[in-house]
Design brief:
The protein is 68% helix and 0% strand. The chain is mostly helical. The longest helix has 20 residues. It is globular, with a radius of gyration of 20 Å. The two termini are 36 Å apart.
Length: 227
Amino acid sequence: MALTASGIYRFSSDKLRRLCPEKGLDSEGSVRLLCQRLVGHLKARAMTSKQDVNSEQQVSRLICQQMRLMADPKILFTDIMWAAVITQFLFFVELLRQVPSLSSEEPEAILRLVSRLDEIHALGLTDDKMFVICILPLVFFAVLRFFGDCFRNGRNWEQCKIELFKEFFPHFVRERMIRDHIVFSFHEEGQPLREYIDRMFAAARFLGYEASEQQLVDRVDMNLHPT
């Protein structure tokens, strides 16, 4: 059954705490806070659906833009080369399609989104300008305005992350997130080990946690579930 804003407020606390992780949301807090997170998630999904990046028209426009960006007048592109460009770009769009849109403007939600996007960016499937354009449907409100400014100012992805960190992660927020997501981030029973390790390393990388790789490995080892 589809979730509705009014229906969410009738759910029990146990059901709310089960639903939140399924939607990529934090399950801690009061019942009212859980309801607000889920309703915010529904609104974000509704906004994203209006400008769905998967529609054929938008994909076609993005492909044309990518072709113009990549086209070098000094190079004679063959049909095989153009096919490779299009295939690569379609693969990039498909990867973005699998990334959940921003669920809220809470730092934890931004961290999850940027960590996923960082993995895709590392594949080098498109240039930074096109990358920023294509992630716009995944964000909203202040974060949408932020990435819009990044695009207008010609910032690359690394510069965007630095500015994002400054704007949405003040010092006290950073300290809290290091504590919650690295130092006292405990492995949960049944949680895939690879998922847990990737999440911790992504948090350390984005939050600028000053520790060596070996120290992070030791921290993971300390926080593993006893079983």
